[in-house]
């Protein structure tokens, strides 16, 4: 079995596994700064895995996506988030609704679900990277879980961005990436989204003196 | 018939036990006669049962029909390899317990000694008959006499209210279980009216009815074995009973339930569906985790052991589940591996848990104290009991080189093969289940260190403990016998497995013996030596050799001087017994980490309390989730029924008359 | 069946473990001192310690029982056995079939139970505290370690340590993603099991923080020497196990002495790097509060389980 899998596929699998590992690390992380750093590492791993796919399949547009990922997710967004945290002076521990070991247990369950759901799909796919589809799905689910369990705004944004990482991984692994136009569009969307959210944070804090989004519950009509 | 067949000898043994029990009635108050004559005789009979069953293993089944029973409904008995394995367990374990009991029972403890002896020996005989029964009728008669005699034994000390309550709860759940078993047998006969096991084997049930029978059997036998959520009687009844009885119930009686489950699911029900295994696996895992967590937080030494029994039963049922799964996918070699783990753990648990229960009996006799918070330091006063208990503790913690580790090792080995399962979800979920088994095993170590450390080590927590004395000769012999069994099961796994393999072979059609016989007797390698191997004897010899060589060298090269002084303890001045961990303190990390699993009532002192005290009470969630709502429901329903109760005889007669009329109308042919 | 060269190799492996283990502890101590800008103790400091301790009288507390006196020897025996079956130099070890990887976990468990019981024996407040904490760390670390072993055993289709190492050394896969998970989990477990910094601090006597030291407070003389030696043997065993599992290059196979000669410098080099990294980890991490330790080990456990799942998904064992 092992002889049939090429070296590049192994590398891609390794990077995919690293992305999953980082997703779990983010789930377990208590510090906001560390969380952002982990997100940056995840972007880096994503960039490297895209690069390996690009080299092994010769698809030139993937080089562009890899570069874009590096620029945006490993450098620009973390930098923006770092600045935000400093400007807002919110270096507190991340609070979560459920305690961390339980979250991780749920995470393990999600991974099992993701792997089993993705199994029949990846059987259909003929790309060399089909194994990673399951991991991509798991990363999306874990990011979702992080958004659900965290109460502060910044970890939620990081969760949102991490989810996008998972989707990107899914795209590269299932179909060797999306068309360039779509990719650029998404990249722009994410960037703009992050900036808007950044503006939002200032507004939220001005309104409530805190970034705890549980305060938003008060905004509804009664 | 000129020669005695093994099944005849076993029957004679059962009768001998009954006779020994009845003989006690001649002089029910004569403790000396009953303890020093009858119980050793019972032990001899137990030895006979064990040896006959051991010798029988590997033979072809024998049957017998007894004349006793109802007209046209005689008792059918059968001795096959599965029965023989469990009869061996019963026989050899009872030897140790009976010898111990000879020294244990004394004057003036509840029931008269003669009555106690009768109950005890009826209990033994009925367990043997449960194993031998070959029709539902004989099985149920034996099963019920087992339940009744053990109930009477539990309530030996019936003057205490809590003991009566525990006994009642036990009897209640035993009967709920018995009804489920009876229904299961009813389903399996599928209306043919043939209540023999042979008749049930011949039936071909549809998957629906087969599943119904399986689930009913799981509930029925689970109630006896202590599976969650029908485990509540176990931690009440085991501590209430006198220690030899607890040992017998935990070591042997729980195994009869496992025997029944194996008999029904592998022998009587021909078909097998993979989800049966999943159900058993899930129930077993929950039971094991629940049992071990609760055992770590107990403060009563016998309750701790009772919960630990629940944990072990859970692990056994996990093994059964794994066997069922492998069996359903026709992976028979792996099924044989898991089945061997199940049988081995039954044997191992019978040995070490009886040993531990008997040790608590000795502690109880010596100190009159069951609460861990009032014990401590007993290794100085009771070295025999302490060192023998250590053997049980190591085996129970699942550590090499004693018996508990072998079965755990086999179970983990069979988990390692589960990714080969052809089912997409199972091949991921089952290996993860192994993680839970590993957690349970590790927690068992925690519970056992607590058990041993708090009772036998440290300073004595009460001044009265200074008068504690070691066990008597009979007790020492009984304990040593069980410790010897634990040791032998630990270091000779291949020899034991090649004997009990006949039962695996009978149930699954394949066994491990052929593989094992290729290697030496000292090596346990169920698949191949490259795949996995364990040589407990060499293991033990290496550690022992290092130990002795190290000791000799240190004394040779340096010296062996020893000085005695007060403990240092980092220079703290207060070193009284109260500075040690209490039982509650020792388990505090568990309560904190797994707090969702417990129902905790805690009182912590504050700085302003004039009389500060600390209390913590751990209760079982299931009482509040399941039993109390159920009890309320029952009492509400019975409240409704009281409306019918008018007190006038004429009305009652009317009810009977109406019922009769209704039945006549409905039940027309 | 047991070849002469195998026997010699076995004895040599045990002797080397006994000799090298204190040096490894000394090396880690030295690196730690350098990292923390202190003057380092000599490399052979643990030897001087052992020699001094063996010379001293054993001072026993009044309440110490026979279990207390025998526990150091049992623990030492367990660690020697563990070192004997871990293929540090060569996979040709006659003792290896005596215990596979699962039994190896059992050996460590046996040693842990004995040392915890010995800690509770004298009946001091610190002793029971240490015993309880050690068992706490143990019951969290043991399942994680077992899961790591499960992952590796699935790759090698065997639980025998030597077979696993041989398989991994000849793997066609260059990079197993599951190994990354297993490796991290193993490192975390090793830190906890060897009483290293994020979980315990081997150099403290502060009551709130110590685990291992609290257990051995009452030991002295030759007993303490054996326990210290056993602790360094444990570190050596874990290091060798980690190196053999995750960096299995340079371990001699078959029955040749030439391989053995090459394996020794390789092992020393790997241990030196490993010890250096360990000191680095210990320096850059702060010790966790005792109730963060379950979280730390829980994470290790999750990672190990995740490694297992990744193994099942990506590397398709079927």
UniProtKB/TrEMBL annotation, chain A:
The keyword Cell membrane applies. It is a multi-pass membrane protein. InterPro entries: HyfE-like (IPR038730). Keywords: Cell membrane, Membrane, Transmembrane, Transmembrane helix. Its main location: membrane. It is found in: Cell membrane. One of its GO terms (cellular component) is plasma membrane. The chain crosses the membrane at residues 6-28, 35-56, 62-85, 97-118, 124-145, 157-178, 184-204. This is Hydrogenase-4 component E.
TrEMBL record, chain B:
GO terms for biological process: ATP synthesis coupled electron transport. Residues 133-415 form the NADH:quinone oxidoreductase/Mrp antiporter transmembrane domain. The keyword Lyase applies. It comes from the Bacteria. GO terms for molecular function: lyase activity; NADH dehydrogenase (ubiquinone) activity; oxidoreductase activity. The chain crosses the membrane at residues 6-26, 38-57, 82-105, 112-131, 137-156, 168-188, 208-233, 245-262, 274-297, 304-329, 341-364, 384-405, 425-458, 479-500, 537-554, 622-643, 649-667. The keyword tRNA-binding does not apply. GO terms for cellular component: plasma membrane. It is found in: Cell membrane; Membrane. Its main location: membrane. Keywords: Cell membrane, Lyase, Membrane, Oxidoreductase, Transmembrane, Transmembrane helix. It is a multi-pass membrane protein. InterPro entries: ComplexI-like_HydComp, NADH_UbQ_OxRdtase, ND/Mrp_TM. Pfam families: Proton_antipo_M. PANTHER family: FORMATE HYDROGENLYASE SUBUNIT 3-RELATED, HYDROGENASE-4 COMPONENT F. This is Formate hydrogenlyase subunit 3/multisubunit Na+/H+ antiporter MnhD subunit.
UniProtKB/TrEMBL annotation, chain C:
It comes from the Bacteria. The chain crosses the membrane at residues 70-89, 101-120, 140-161, 173-192, 235-252, 259-281, 296-314. The keyword Transmembrane applies. GO terms for cellular component: plasma membrane. One of its GO terms (molecular function) is lyase activity. It is found in: Membrane. It is a multi-pass membrane protein. Keywords: Lyase, Membrane, Transmembrane, Transmembrane helix. InterPro entries: ComplexI_Subunit1, NADH_UbQ_OxRdtase_su1/FPO. Coiled coil: none annotated. This is Formate hydrogenlyase subunit 4.
């Amino acid at each position: 079995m092992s002889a049939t899998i090429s070296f590049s596929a192994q590398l891609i699998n390794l990077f995919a596994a690293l992305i999953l590992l980082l997703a779990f690390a983010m789930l377990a992380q208590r510090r906001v700064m560390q969380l952002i750093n982990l997100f940056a590492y995840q972007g880096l791993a994503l960039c490297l895995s895209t690069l390996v796919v690009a080299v092994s399949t010769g698809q030139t547009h993937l080089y562009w996506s890899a570069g874009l990922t590096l620029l945006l997710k490993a450098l620009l967004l973390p930098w923006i988030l770092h600045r935000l945290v400093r400007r807002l002076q919110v270096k507190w521990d991340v609070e979560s609704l459920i305690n961390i070991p339980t979250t991780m247990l749920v995470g393990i369950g999600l991974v099992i679900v993701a792997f089993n759901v993705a199994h029949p799909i990846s059987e259909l796919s003929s790309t060399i990277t089909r194994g990673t589809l399951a991991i991509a799905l798991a990363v999306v689910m874990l990011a979702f879980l992080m958004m659900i369990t965290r109460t502060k705004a910044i970890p939620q944004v990081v969760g949102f961005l991490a989810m996008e990482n998972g989707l990107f991984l899914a795209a590269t692994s299932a179909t060797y990436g999306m068309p360039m136009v779509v990719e650029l569009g998404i990249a722009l969307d994410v960037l703009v989204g992050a900036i808007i959210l950044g503006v939002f944070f200032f507004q939220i804090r001005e309104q409530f003196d805190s970034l705890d989004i549980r305060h938003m519950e008060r905004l509804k009509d009664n | 018939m000129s020669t005695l067949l093994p099944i005849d000898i076993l029957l004679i043994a059962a009768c001998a036990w009954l006779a020994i029990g009845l003989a006690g009635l001649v002089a029910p108050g004569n403790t000396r006669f009953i303890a020093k004559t009858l119980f050793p005789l019972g032990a001899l009979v137990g030895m006979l049962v064990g040896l006959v069953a051991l010798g029988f293993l590997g033979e072809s089944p024998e049957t017998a029909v007894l004349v006793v029973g109802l007209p046209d409904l005689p008792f059918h008995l059968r001795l096959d390899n599965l029965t023989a394995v469990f009869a061996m367990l019963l026989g050899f374990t009872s030897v140790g317990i009976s010898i111990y009991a000879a020294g244990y029972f004394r004057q003036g403890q509840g029931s008269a000694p003669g009555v106690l002896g009768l109950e005890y020996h009826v209990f033994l005989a009925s367990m043997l008959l449960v194993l031998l029964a070959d029709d539902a009728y004989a099985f149920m008669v034996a099963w019920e006499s087992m339940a009744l005699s053990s109930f009477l034994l539990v309530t030996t000390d019936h003057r205490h209210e809590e003991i009566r309550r525990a006994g009642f709860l036990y009897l209640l759940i035993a009967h709920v279980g018995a009804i489920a078993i009876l229904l299961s047998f009813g389903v399996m006969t599928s209306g043919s009216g043939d209540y023999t096991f042979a008749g049930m084997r011949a039936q071909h049930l549809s998957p629906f009815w087969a599943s119904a029978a399986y689930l009913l059997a799981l509930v029925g036998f689970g109630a006896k074995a202590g599976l969650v959520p029908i485990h509540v009687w176990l931690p009440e009844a085991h501590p209430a009973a006198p220690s030899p009885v607890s040992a017998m119930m935990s070591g042997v009686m729980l195994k009869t339930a496992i025997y029944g489950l194996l008999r029904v699911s592998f022998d009587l029900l021909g078909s097998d569906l993979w989800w049966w295994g999943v159900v058993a696996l899930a129930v077993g895992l929950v039971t094991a985790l629940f049992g071990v967590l609760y055992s770590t937080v107990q403060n009563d030494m016998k309750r701790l052991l009772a919960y630990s029994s629940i944990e072990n039963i859970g692990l056994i049922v996990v093994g059964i589940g794994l066997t069922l799964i492998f069996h359903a996918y026709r992976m028979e070699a792996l099924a044989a591996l898991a089945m061997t783990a199940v049988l081995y753990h039954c044997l191992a648990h019978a040995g070490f848990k009886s040993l531990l229960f008997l040790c608590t009996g000795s502690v109880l006799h010596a100190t009159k104290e069951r609460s861990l918070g009032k014990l401590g330091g007993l290794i100085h006063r009771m070295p025999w009991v302490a060192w023998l208990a250590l053997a049980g503790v190591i085996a129970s913690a699942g550590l090499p080189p004693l018996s508990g580790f072998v079965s755990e090792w086999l179970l983990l080995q069979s988990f390692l093969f589960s990714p080969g399962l052809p089912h997409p979800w199972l091949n991921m979920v089952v290996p993860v289940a192994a993680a839970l088994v590993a957690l349970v095993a590790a927690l068992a170590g925690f519970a056992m260190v607590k058990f041993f450390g708090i009772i036998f080590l440290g300073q004595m927590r009460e001044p009265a403990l200074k008068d504690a004395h070691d066990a008597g000769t009979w007790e020492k012999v009984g304990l040593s016998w069980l410790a010897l069994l634990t040791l032998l099961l630990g270091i000779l796994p291949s020899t034991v497995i090649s004997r009990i393999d006949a039962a695996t072979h009978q149930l699954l059609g394949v066994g491990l013996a052929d593989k094992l016989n290729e290697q030496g007797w000292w090596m346990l390698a169920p698949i191949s030596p490259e795949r996995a191997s364990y040589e407990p004897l060499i293991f033990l010899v290496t550690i022992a050799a290092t130990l002795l060589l190290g000791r000799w060298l240190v004394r040779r090269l340096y010296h062996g001087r020893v000085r005695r002084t007060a403990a240092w303890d980092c220079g703290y001045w207060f070193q009284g017994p109260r500075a040690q961990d209490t039982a509650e303190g020792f388990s505090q990390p568990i309560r904190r980490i797994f707090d969702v699993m417990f129902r905790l009532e805690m009182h912590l002192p504050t700085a302003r309390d004039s009389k500060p005290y600390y209390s913590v009470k751990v209760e079982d969630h299931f009482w509040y989730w399941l039993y109390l709502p159920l009890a309320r429901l029952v009492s509400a329903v019975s409240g409704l029924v009281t409306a019918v109760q008018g007190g006038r005889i004429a009305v009652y007669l009317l009810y009977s008359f109406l019922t009769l009329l209704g039945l006549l109308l409905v039940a027309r042919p | 069946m047991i070849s002469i060269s195998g026997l010699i190799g076995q004895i040599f492996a045990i002797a080397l473990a006994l000799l090298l283990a204190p040096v490894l502890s000394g090396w880690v101590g030295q690196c730690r001192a350098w990292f923390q800008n202190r003057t380092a103790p000599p490399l052979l400091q643990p030897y001087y310690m052992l020699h001094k301790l063996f010379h001293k009288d054993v001072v026993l507390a009044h309440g110490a029982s026979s279990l207390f006196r025998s526990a150091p020897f049992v623990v030492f025996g367990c660690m020697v056995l563990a070192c004997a079956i871990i293929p540090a130099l060569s996979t040709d070890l006659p003792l290896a079939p005596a215990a596979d990887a699962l039994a190896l976990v059992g050996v460590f468990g046996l040693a842990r139970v004995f040392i915890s019981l010995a800690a509770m024996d004298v009946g001091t407040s610190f002793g029971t505290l240490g015993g309880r904490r050690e068992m706490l760390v143990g019951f969290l670390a043991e399942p994680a370690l077992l899961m790591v072993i499960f992952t590796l055993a699935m790759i090698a289709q065997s639980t025998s340590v030597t077979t696993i190492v041989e398989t991994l050394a000849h793997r066609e896969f260059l990079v197993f993603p599951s190994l990354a998970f297993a490796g991290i989990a193993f490192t975390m477990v090793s830190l906890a099991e060897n009483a290293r910094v994020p979980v315990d601090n081997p150099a403290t006597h502060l009551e709130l923080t110590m685990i291992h030291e609290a257990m051995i407070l009452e030991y002295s003389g030759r007993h303490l020497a054996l326990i210290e030696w056993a602790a360094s043997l444990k570190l050596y065993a874990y290091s060798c196990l980690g190196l053999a599992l995750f960096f299995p290059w340079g371990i001699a196979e078959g029955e040749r002495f030439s391989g053995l000669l090459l394996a020794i410098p390789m092992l020393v080099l790997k241990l030196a790097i490993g010890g250096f990294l360990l000191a680095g980890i210990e320096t850059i991490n702060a010790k966790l509060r005792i109730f963060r330790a379950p979280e730390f080990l829980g994470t290790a456990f999750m990672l190990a389980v995740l490694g297992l799942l990744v193994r099942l998904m990506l590397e398709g064992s079927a």
